[in-house]
Structures are given as C-alpha cells and as structure tokens.
Amino acid sequence: MNDLQREGFVLLGGPLEDTPDVLLIVRANTADEIVKRLAADPWTAQDLLRMSRTMPWTVRLGSLP
Known about the structure:
alpha+beta, single chain, 17% strand
C-alpha cells in the first residue's frame, strides 16, 4: 500500500468513523485498473484489504497532488 501511495496511485486513505471500513481515494482511469492494482498488493493477499465497491468522484473544490 505504501508503494501504491508513493507511485501516486493511492492519493488519500483512512478509516471511516464507527465502521470497520476504509476509504481510499485513488487516481485511475477505470474501475478495472483499480481492481487489478489492488489485487496485486500484499494487503489483499494477506486479507487486510477487501474491496467492496468503486465509485467515480469529481473534485469540485481544491486539488489533489
């Protein structure tokens, strides 16, 4: 996961309050790209990461690196 962040794929991430869920903001062109990149991450192999869904997001205020 740290490598994905250093590469600029994962931009932001953190737990959602009062849930076991985590939100990851990633930079990708397609949902398939997200699935493929996260499937190759050790967190997925160690069952530390289970993707439940992907959704497009448009930044309207501010900017991300």
